[in-house]
Amino acid sequence: MVAKISTGSSMFGALAYNQNKVDEEQGKVLFAHRMLQSEDGNFSIGECMRSFEMQMPSHINTAKPILHISLNPHPDDRLTDEQLATIAQEYMEKLGYGNQPYIAYKHEDIDRHHVHIVGLRVDENGKPLSDKFEHRRSKQITRELEQKYGLHPAERQQRGERPELKKVDYATGDVKHQIGNAVKAACYGYHFQSFGEYKALLATYNICAEEVKGEANGKPYQGITYCATNDKGEKLGNPIKSSRIGKSVGYEAIERRMLKSGEVIKAKHLKEITRHKVAAVMKTARNRPELERELKAKGVDVLFRQNDSGHIYGVTFIDHETRTVMNGSRLGKEFSANVFNDAFALQSDNTNRQERAFTPKELHEPSPQLSDGGISSAFGLFTGGNSEEDNKPLPQKKKKKRRSKRIN
């Protein structure tokens, strides 16, 4: 089990985040500790705010009096609500917040159900409770709870920060739930900068995403629908509106995610990392299956989009290590669909004409230098020939004009 501890200044923000899960039927209140409860037994944001305000000192000696903790069991741990509540309460007591007011929520928006806890981290005098070595103590507590309740160690898995992504299996039923889990994990687990890249990512998990535009009551609207597919990309069943899954995967949320992804990709130089992997494979792979296989070994899936005649008009790279999705043209013109289409077509033509596969010696003679702007040259290895750049005629030397002797 992995615990994430964060602090903040907005109680409303922390409560609203969790209440949104409850409103969308993707979460529930597990229990509340030292909190007022309404007559109908529900915990609205208003009731929770009043409860916390009653117990919050008028003078606070910290800018971040709000505590927000998430407890994340291993995906293989299937715990009941009672077990989750017991573990959450024991964790809070061991960490030193056992006497504080707090409320625990269970989130069910992804296949791995987990717990969020919102509470106060200040005492009755407004002083923050000691957080000395808090993260170190938290890890020790989670290890103890794993051993006590026979849970799977989840720390190693969390380091990868990879959400659960599974192919949708239409035959098993509960398609809406399957699609919901997958699109949320994909949307917030990967970086993409266009709807086409997002759509390509989902296609690998048997989901078709489509933009919907129209007009209702004289007002234009934009939305997204999701539909299950088989391994061939053929749609199965009826499309599901994003609103039925949640605002977090709706049109506006996806737009925000695309903008954020662009910032992250630029700041962490993720494009350059994927570019380097693809370029290296393009330099050595001898055919399309080998290209796909070697990229997969580097943690990169490549998706080619072809028309009925077999012409490749699109290519997308999904780097599962950097969690980045990028069209070939975004990596650079040397990685565009046309480069692959021409290379594969020429390779097929040469193979049919020569009736044999290329040998490593042929593929590496001559050996072009791999550099930015020279990937198409390296990809010429697929055909055993040179690149377009190499095929350009050499500039001819200008002939010197012979001067005629003047006769005086």
Written description of the protein model:
With 408 residues, the protein is of the alpha+beta class. The protein folds into three domains: 158 residues, BirA Bifunctional Protein, domain 2, CATH 3.30.930.30; 98 residues, no CATH class; 122 residues, no CATH class. Helices cover 40% and strands 20% of the residues. The chain is built from 16 helices and eleven strands. The strands form three sheets. Strands 1-3-5-4-2 form a five-stranded antiparallel β-sheet, sandwiched between helices. Strand 4 and strand 5 form a beta hairpin. Helix 3 packs antiparallel against helix 4. The N and C termini lie far apart (104 Å). 29% of the residues are buried. About 12% of the residues have low confidence.
Any key phrases for this structure?
alpha+beta, single chain, elongated, BirA Bifunctional Protein, domain 2, 408 residues, 3 domains
